Amino acid sequence: MRSLTLHLKVLIAILVVLGISITAYQIFVLGIPVTEDATDDLWNIDAKVEFVANGKDPIKIQMFVPPLSRDYVSLNESFISNNYGVAVNRVDGNRKVTWSARRAKGNQTLYYRLVLTKRYSAEKSKVKGPTFRDSMAVEGPEKIAADALLAPIRQHSADVETFISEAIKRVNNSSDDNAKLLLAGDTSSANKAKIVELLLSIAHVPMEKVHTIRLVADQPQTPELWLRSFNGTDWLYFNPETGERGMPSDRLLWWTGDDNLISVDGGKKANVTFSLNNSEMNAIRLAKLTDENTDANFLEYSLYGLPLQTQQTFMIMVMIPIGVLVILVLRNLIGLQTLGTFTPVLIALAFRETQLGFGIVLFTVITALGLSLRSYLEHLKLQMLPRLSVVLTFVVVLIAAISLFSHKLGLERGLSVALFPMVILTMTIERLSITWEERGGGHAMKVAIGTLFAASLAHLIMSVPELTYFVFTFPAILLILVGFMLAMGRYRGYRLTELVRFKAFLKADS
Question: Is there a single domain that holds both residue 187 and residue 287?
Fold first, then answer.
């Protein structure tokens, strides 16, 4: 007995730990929303390209577009143009779109449109980058100024990260004569980045220029320059004005390198205008779109990966253990008497079609009439199988009659009674009649009322939308329920209703 108890405790512990671990992994690692009404941001970005075509030469316009390799995923990408050919290529880690036309004249307008969202992924993909670079050629006074700047940078840094931050701060120090000499009067962000790159190259530290777009709605903007360096495992991003590490979460990397955003052959006065707007979408629906448009497997091994019709069936099935748990608590802890465990749950499922109030009335009417017929058939001394057949046929006829009269009276809710599980009603009538004969009418009524109450409570709990979503999205929670049910299986204590039964003994003892 002791070994059996230990085995049961170990089994319960395994089920509970497994259920909690899987659910926690889905919530905290995969990022699956806990509530159905959770939403995520959806960004719409428009890049408007304007230029003037020469009219004589072929036109070729090239523009960088986001690589979308790690943090963001594209849900829709479109290139809007009139009589232009479109091609997208990858060049040195960037993506570049090329619009081309044989002839064009006058003002031209092209559009690039992108719909994106944060990437759902359990694991970040591995990234690669350079960890060493050759020194850039520098001579004369610039060489002396660069060496003079590097000396305090090395002294005040401990690793690559602090070395880069210190180099950026030194270059932005307007009172440093060496920095002034290297900048040569040009204090633009692009020139400062160029000087920082020079200093880092002398120390053989690789650095790249990255151009970003800020994800802010309804604000005109131009690409912002940032710097980054690879530390062997990940990219480190730096603000070129302050040296502060870490790119803000509202920045979208558009392209890397020294090239301009756009280049035009056969035209002039090229200009790109960005406009952004933000909307929200249901998080689960957005995750489905992410899986459909990428190779992500956010929902691949969840019930959301099933066909839609099958999903609707499973939304009902996963709630059956919840109903069973309600019945188990009512019977084992409270002491409520019902017709078995599964019968109230099936009746609760039938209430999904009829709604609770109408379902209770139908259940009461059909059961009462069925018991009357069962009592009459008992006088005919029929065997059980013929008697059940007659009761079943009577239930079908009664359901059909109720549906017909409900339709004639304009009560369309009555039509749903046809979905009542007829076999369950028949067996319920049969079992209640047997209980009536064996234990008396009072006990049979008590059991019938208990069954109806348990079914009603189970229906109310099983119909909670938030609970349905949670169990369907995190089905591992059912393992925890199984562990609780196993623990309830060894309960031998008093039930709440037994306090009333033994109340007379308590008075006698006192």
Answer: no
